[in-house]
Every structure is written in C-alpha cells, then in structure tokens.
Design a protein that fits this description.
- The structure is a homodimer.
- By secondary structure, chain A is an alpha/beta fold.
- In chain A, 50% of the residues are buried.
- Chain A folds into two domains: 175 residues, Medium-chain alcohol dehydrogenases, catalytic domain (Quinone Oxidoreductase, Chain A, domain 1, Alpha-Beta Complex), CATH 3.90.180; 141 residues, Rossmann fold.
- Chain A is built from ten helices and 16 strands.
- In chain A, 28% of the residues lie in helices and 27% in strands.
- Chain A is globular and about 60 Å long.
- In chain A, the strands form three sheets. In chain A, strands 3, 5, 6, 7, 8, 15 and 16 form a seven-stranded mixed β-sheet that branches. The first copy, chain A, has a six-stranded parallel β-sheet with strand order 11-10-9-12-13-14, sandwiched between helices. A three-stranded antiparallel β-sheet of chain A has the order 2-1-4, with helices on one face.
- In chain A, helix 3 crosses helix 4 and helix 3 packs across helix 9.
- At the A-B interface, helix 3, strand 14 and helix 8 of A face helix 3, strand 13 and helix 8 of B.
Chain lengths: 334, 334
C-alpha cells in the first residue's frame, strides 16, 4: 500500500512517498481505508525522536477519517464500510498511509454532516480539548445562563483552542476569554464564540481586570506554561484549576499556586492509549458525543487549511506551516 | 481577659501569659469562651513571621472548642451557650485566649460525644483532610466494598493523616496505604484502619509493588513534597491525583507528571477564610458532617497528648513537641 514514511539519515529526517506492506488486523483492530488526515505537533515531536539503529521507515500521523475496510476477530462496534474518525495511538504506526490499523475503542462514527477533510480535522484536538475541560478540570456540562465563572484559553486560535472555545461556549456556563496575538487569530476566536479575546504577548492580569474579570476559575494553557506561569498564578481565583498540555521548558514554581489552593492537571490525549487504561473506550464515547453535537449544528469543524492529497509533498508543506506555530485552526490533507 | 501572647524581642520570640483587652463581636462573629485548643504547624509558622516595628503582642492558635459567650448582630446559626468547635482564620488573632472571635460560617456544633479536649483536637486537621480528599481530589464518598483503587497517605500518623486515614477507610471505597517510619506511628495508622503501612524513609515503589498495589490512584502528601517527588510520579496511576499541603523546599519537576496526565492540587485549610470565598460556609458544613460521624461512632478523635491547661508553659511544651515532628495524632490543651 501507499504511505508517506519518514527516513532518517545523517542530514536529518525526510518525508518520502513509499510502498509499504499492508498491515494485518489484531483482534480488536479496524483496518481503515484512510480518506483524510490532519497534522499535529505530535508529528513533529515523533519525527525528531531518535531512531533505533536498525529502524525501518516510520509512518507519522495521528488524526484520520476513513472507511472501515476490514475488522479484527473480536471487533463488535463496527462493520466494513462504516465511516469513522479517530486519533489512535502513538505506540503504533501513524495514519499517513492508504490503510491504517486502530483499536476500535479509540474510534467512533464520523459526523454525518461533514466531508472527509472536515471530519479529519477533529479527533485529536477535540479529544484533548474535551478531556482537558471535562475530565481533567471536571467543568460541569450545563447551561445555567449566568456565566458567573470564567475560563481563560491561552492560545485560542490553534487546533485544540478552536474546539475548546466552542465546547466551553456551547456546553458550559462559563464566560470564555481566549488569547490571541494577531488580528486574524483574534477574529477567529470571536467567530467561534469566545466572549472576549486578550493578547497573550502582554501581561494578562491588567487585561482581565479591564474586562471586569480579574480572576478566572479555570485556565486551559495551550502554550508553553513556564513563560506565563506567574501571570497564571495571579489571575486564577481561589480553588481555581489550570490544565496544561505542552511540556514546561523551565521549572514551574508550584509554591505560587499554594495560597489559593489551586489545582494543576496535565492533559495528554494519548495517555489512555499509551497505558491501555481501563477507560480507553472513553475516547470512543467522546468522539460519538462530538459527532452528535457537530451533526446537530452545535459545534463546527476546525478545518482551516486544506492543502491537497496525502503525499510527501503536501505533508512537508503542512509540517512546515505547523512548525511556524502561527496556523489558525487545523491543517488537513485528503 | 487572659491570653498567651507571643512577644518578639532581639533574642527571638517568646510565649507569655498576659492580660489583654476583651474583643468586641463583628456582625457575623461569635465570641467563644475557649475551653480547649490544639496546636498546629501553622502556630510555629506564624510565630516566625516577621513582626511589624510597632507590633502589639500577638495571639496564636487556630483550633478551638468552647461555648458561645456572645453573638454578633447578624449571627443566625448559633445562640449563647452553644458548644462549638472550629479552626477560624489566620487573618485574625488566634484562640489561645479566654475569649475568641470567629466568623460563624467557619463554626459548627461540637460533637456531643466528645469532651472539650477531644473536640479541640479535630477542626483544623480534619478540615484539611476532608477538603484534600473530597474537594481537591474529589474522591467519591461511597462504599462499594471492592476497594479497587488505592490512596497513599504520606505521613499517616500526624494530625491530618490520622483523620485522612479514617475518612478514606470509613467513607470511601479506597484501599488505604499509609506511610510511617517508626513502630509506634505504624501501629497508630493500623489502629485507625489503614489497610497497609509502608515506610516513607525507603523507596516507595518497591514497597507498594510488594503489597500488590504497584500503582495508586491518589496520593495525599502530608510531608515536604520535593523529597519524594520522583517516587510519587512513579507510583501514581494514569490520571492519578496528588494533593500536597506543605510548601515545596525545592522545585518540583512537573514534567514528570505529564505522560500519565496526572493532576496536582494544593490544599490550604485557610484559603476560604483568607480569601473570604463565596463557599466559606462550606467549612461549617464539613464540621457538621464530621461531628455527626463522630457521634455515630464512625470517626474517632485524633487527640493523643493532653498536656494541661492553656497557659504559656504548656503551650511552650506543645510547640517544642510539634517542632520535633515526631508527634502522633494531636496535642491538646484545656
């Protein structure tokens, strides 16, 4: 089958079109005919991972939409021909290939109202946003209307932020303040429903004060956390909760969070798959709920850039855009 | 009225018996005739606080049981003569005095089945244990019997630990592993119901493995956290939650918690009172539930050392014992 592989040599790593062996389903696997994929920072991280001496070419990519082509002997929730979407597991080969294996517990039917590329934009970043808000910070899903408490989304215009804003605005009673540093990213956040947008390149506390929201109950930090740490400690309300996704580049002074009895969580979308946790099937549940909300018109796809078919040339373009860290929404191929 | 005050001079701070002015109730205050008090690490911390140049003698002590002697104009939950217990607020003078003012939202009726000294042992440390388990880590209060998940209580024999063990054993379905480093502290933890006790002066992971509990869902860290940090990161299960009370003496490498999507919370018993949070009255609720559980025979007082009446001599003795960090349960005067 066709695939885009990453080959490491003395001068670095390169993406190449290649022909690789068709994989065989394990008992819980779906073999999916991949129709569209999206790119994520994890691709760049995995591309940099030091290869083993005898390494075979690797396949990146952990965000896919496609059709079930074959099923493992113990698969019970899916049949051949089902339209599905998923992020999968970083412990297995990625989805930048014609066919791809994934454990059915990580998969759900794709939203019926979306095209392949619109669907492929969603899984990884939506799972991260959903788990961060509802599993890690345990923000109640309700709509009391009052919006008394606030959520600050740092880096609101990226893939995770674009879904987190929508989830918080549509499914919770939080007042949602996003951060963005450019006019187009600011407009993007407002179009997704953010109640206010502030600039994360300037101190946060005075901007929040000017909004009449000097303290926030929740912070979803989608940027590197050490750069904004003391600012976040200042703006969090007593008993507030901060959730971060990106590894800290410098030590985080946890004592700054102590007087207000604050909580900090890491959200890692791959934790369930990496540790094969008992609640692994929770990702199927989230993707199902997400698809329903999309089909009901409550949530929108975060697709922003459709670059072309899945091949080495388009993936290199996608990864170059991603590495600049200025993209809005999601980059999709298919 | 009589009080024990702390006076700072060139050679340090000293506790002295003194006669000070009787305080006048604010609208939400109870004036309590203090019958018994207990000592806590916060006393030592507040004693070390740098005094203002013109400082008046200060009163320490934030754990009391006594009788309501007078009430403020807006008090609605208490009447003169009520038997009460509470921790109070570090922003106000402490309770090592004949009479003491406290906001009624932080107070509850004392357990009927306990003596004054037995009751005074409870408030501060029980509030900390309760808030850590049920508010910060949000451990469900239920008893399914299975005890599939485990809680590790680091420093199980101290004041907070002695109540945390009981709360977890009696009110949750967790398997409770406490740590202790001496025979008497180990026996104390087992007598409170801990299902197992390990030694926190040795690596934790192999000891938990030997117990058949290699991973724990929750850690309540009642000792200085940086000393055991990498051990805790190792033994926490994916999506596990760690709650700490004591300021970190060295940076905590938060990245160690990332792969497993772990959560970290600070528990500060005085956060509600210090920030006058909207849920300040939650401490009254907790102390009420605690008193009911004590009167129902579900929880026991953590009183271990009754040193004598509240005076400078006995308080100096109590603080000296506390500073050694080897006491089991609570030290009470009254």
């Amino acid at each position: 089958m066709k695939a885009v592989v990453i080959r490491c040599n003395a001068s670095g790593a390169a993406l190449q079109d290649a022909e690789i062996e068709m994989p065989a389903c394990g008992p819980n696997d779906l073999c999916v005919a991949v129709q569209a994929v999206s790119v994520n920072p994890i691709d760049l991280k995995m591309a940099r991972a030091k290869p083993a001496a005898d390494e075979k070419p690797r396949v990146l990519g952990w965000d896919a939409a496609g059709t079930v082509h074959a099923v493992g002997s113990e698969v019970k929730d899916f049949s051949i021909g089902d339209r599905v979407y998923y992020a999968g597991s970083v412990l297995r080969p990625g989805c930048f290939s014609e066919f791809h294996l994934v454990d059915e517990r990580l998969v759900a039917p794709a939203p019926r109202s979306l095209s392949w590329v619109e669907a492929a934009a969603l899984p990884l970043s939506s799972l991260a946003a959903w788990e961060a808000l509802f599993d890690r910070m345990r923000i109640p899903q309700r709509s009391a209307g009052a919006r008394a408490k606030a959520l600050l989304v740092l880096g609101g215009a990226g893939g995770v932020g674009s879904m987190a804003i929508q989830l918080a605005v549509q499914l919770t009673d939080l007042h949602v303040v996003a951060t963005a540093s450019r006019i187009e990213s600011r407009d993007h956040c407002l179009a997704l429903g953010a109640h206010a947008v502030i600039d994360h390149t300037a101190p946060l506390a005075p901007q929040l004060k000017a909004l009449g929201r000097p303290q926030v109950a929740y912070v979803l930090c989608l940027t590197e956390p050490s750069a904004v740490w003391s600012d976040l400690a200042t703006v969090l309300a007593p008993f507030g909760h901060l959730c971060a996704l990106v590894e800290a580049a410098a030590p985080l002074d946890m004592n700054l969070l102590r007087a207000k009895s604050l909580s900090f969580s890491w959200e890692g979308m791959f934790t369930r798959a990496m540790f094969k946790t008992a609640d692994m099937v929770g990702q199927q549940d989230i993707l199902r709920q997400l698809a329903q909300a999309v089909d009901a018109g409550v949530l929108k796809t975060t697709l922003k850039h459709h670059l072309g078919p899945v091949d080495a040339r388009h993936l290199m373009h996608a990864h170059a855009l991603l590495a600049m860290r200025r993209t809005i929404g999601k980059i999709v191929l298919g």
